[in-house]
Amino acid sequence: MATDTPANNESLYVVPAVSAEKDRLLKQYTMKNAVYGWTKPVPDIIDLSSTRNVLDIGAGTCIWSIDLANTPEVKVRRSEVNIYACDINPAILPPTVTAELGIKTFEQDVTKPFPTEYHGIFDLVHLSFLFICLTEDGWNKALENVCTLLSPGGLVMMDELDPVFFKEGKYERSATGYDLGKSMTGESWIHKLNSLYTGFIVGNKFLVGLTFLLPDMLERAGLRVVSSDVRMGGIGKVVGSLTGADGSSLAPYVDSSIENMEFILSQFVPIMRKMGTLEVPPGTRVVAEEDIESILAEVKEGLRTEGATCVGAFFVAKKI
Fold first, then answer.
1. Hey, CA dihedral for 201, 304, 22, 85, is it positive or negative?
2. Cis geometry, peptide bond prior to residue 6 (ω within 30 degrees of 0)
3. 25: enclosing H helix or E strand
């Protein structure tokens, strides 16, 4: 993990490449596919039969790249398809599995210029869940870099989450965004969850509201959205009442969604504490260990007994 605090960077992934994080990313990928009703790593609008050069940015454990390499349309053409995967933290990239599948991996910060040999060669670029990594300037640079990497008419596929949580049936978002003060200020466990999770995102100048901000950002970078879908997701008990885009139940993901949030908060809270930004609610700094433990216990119980909903979206955009 980088030693600088997130606020000093345009791009930074704060979660270490430990086994728990690798397991979390796998479960997150599986649940995300269930939410969108995908049985393969790309939506139907993307034609894999003619795709030759693919890049997975922020690849992490390379689960998407591995899934793509094993997709029938790609597997039968493996000698013709070049799959690349990069991450800001090379320690999390799995060298053995990727080598077996011919996936070429390299270290790369998406906000920094990519090697010139990659410019203009990719038919498909994939990015996922970078809302926890990039500032507004970081996003603008990242999307400009993606456009540079794409071949004429090439596609970028990306999915993101709005890190603001609501009780079931209480979803509130205007055309211009969320009332973050209202979301974080209150006495309920969900206000405390937002104070920690949304507060971390806001405090480090990462973006909230990518599900509605990205189309314009993509357009400015020279990429036009050709397909998208906005879906309701969740954490904890409420997940049991949600269905994916294909109508299947998301109930199998109740427990893993709670574990996911617990692990993320276990990374966020120490950073916020060190930076002096651990405030629940905003303006009320939390210092005592017993108070922190009490807040986390209340959040966990709330997720177990009630659960929370949130909004995610995927976009496929074409180089103009």
1. negative
2. no
3. helix 19-36
pLDDT at site 11: 52
Instruction: Give the span between the Cα atoms of 82 and 77, in whole angstroms.
Output: 10
CA dihedral 35, 147, 137, 313 (to 10 degrees): -10
Q: Is 262 in a helix, a strand, or coil? A: helix
Predicted pLDDT at 7: 44
The pLDDT of residue 160: 96
**pLDDT value of position 169:** 67
| Cα distance between residue 275 and residue 108, in whole Å | 26
Q: How far apart are CA 90 and CA 62, in angstroms?
A: 11
From the CB of residue 59, how many other CB atoms can be counted at a distance below 10 Å?
Answer: 28
Cα–Cα nearest to 149, from 101, 172, 116, 191: 116
Handedness of CA 267, 281, 204, 194 (dihedral sign): positive
What's residue 26's pLDDT?
Answer: 82
The three-class DSSP label of residue 308 is: strand
Give the type of residue at 302.
Answer: G
pTM of the predicted model over 0.70 = yes
Of the candidates 179, 198, 64, 76, the residue with the CA atom closest to the CA atom of residue 127: 64
Q: How far apart are CA 190 and CA 164, in angstroms?
A: 10
Q: What distance, in Å, lies between the first and last C-alpha atoms of the chain?
A: 36
The strand pairing partners of 311, in sequence order, are 162, 232
Separation CA 280–CA 35 (nearest Å): 31
Q: Is 82 in contact with 52 (CB distance < 8 Å)?
A: yes
User: Rounded CA gap, 101 and 226, in Å?
Assistant: 30
What is the distance between the alpha carbons of residues 299 and 193, in angstroms, rounded to a whole number? Answer: 6
Q: Which regions in the chain score pLDDT beneath 70?
A: 1-20, 169, 174-176
